[in-house]
Amino acid sequence: MPETMRAVVLDAPGPVESLTIRELPVPVPRPGWVLIRVKAFGLNRSELHTRIGLAEGVTFPRVLGIEATGVVAACPGGEFAEGTKVVAMMGGMGRTFDGGYAEYTCVPATQVIAFTSDLDWSVLGAVPEMLQTANGALTIGLDARPGQSILVRGGTSSVGMAVAVLAKQRGMTVFSTTRTEGKTAALKDLGVDHVLVDDGAVAAQVRAILPEGVHTALELVGTPTLPDTLAATRVHGVVCMAGMLSNEWIVKDFYPIGYLPRGVRLSGYGGDAADLPPEVLQGFLDSVAAGEVVVPIDRVYRFDEIVRAHTDMESGHTKGKLVVTT
């Protein structure tokens, strides 16, 4: 085991150039923690919020990254054998302790899930947080059922595309939005039934196809589009807010009776590793290996391209997951 590692460090919120690659000591795990040799990690909007100063409860300097994929390098508590392939996510990663933007990361064993797969690390690195959020939003936030309809607001985000894949596996009718006409083909390739170009009045487009509205809707853009998403949902339907692509997540002067359409339910989802059962992760990876589903990856970067990767994420022009390999 080396004594030092490369890591992406943020000393304080700032522009993309604030992300610097440095040599740091390899963390030493204590009982109950797992040292992971990181093979790949996905980028998340949460890390952008941390970088630009919108995240709360973050201490600096900090190695960012709320997820990582790799192999167990050490586990003094014996929860995982050395060499086991694992993913890790959430639980304070990249916020209250150093996260996955490094060649090694040390995380609580409760945040780690083992798997077996021969898929490329660039593919595996895209999965953990994206799948956890998509699966949790569908099962916990929406309680989605086979045969129902779903509107995904923010459909070309990585989570939005993963939700479309999982929803189609459940036999749901999927409506998905994009602000860019050029991204419609990417959604159709996932099997989306109705691709809607988001002009701010998506509810009217939905109801032109389903006059009663959709059974479920996942809000990934944030509070600016939430009222219109609610308006696209039928009586007794459920809207789950699980993302903030707009960087806005507060509803000011919230008056429920005036804000919520009659009979439409609003929930929220912000999950953890516990919301991704190992059998769900393994089943998804097996389906990818069998060619039954695809992992929506937009681009893969080298470790030293982290500034470019964050620049692309912030631009909003990407579609699907951005992944960095070490």
UniProtKB/TrEMBL annotation:
It comes from the Bacteria. Residues 14-324 form the Enoyl reductase (ER) domain. Keywords: NADP, Oxidoreductase. One of its GO terms (molecular function) is oxidoreductase activity, acting on NAD(P)H. SUPFAM superfamilies: GroES-like, NAD(P)-binding Rossmann-fold domains. PANTHER family: QUINONE OXIDOREDUCTASE PIG3 (PTHR48106:SF18), QUINONE OXIDOREDUCTASE PIG3-RELATED (PTHR48106). This is NADPH:quinone reductase-like Zn-dependent oxidoreductase.
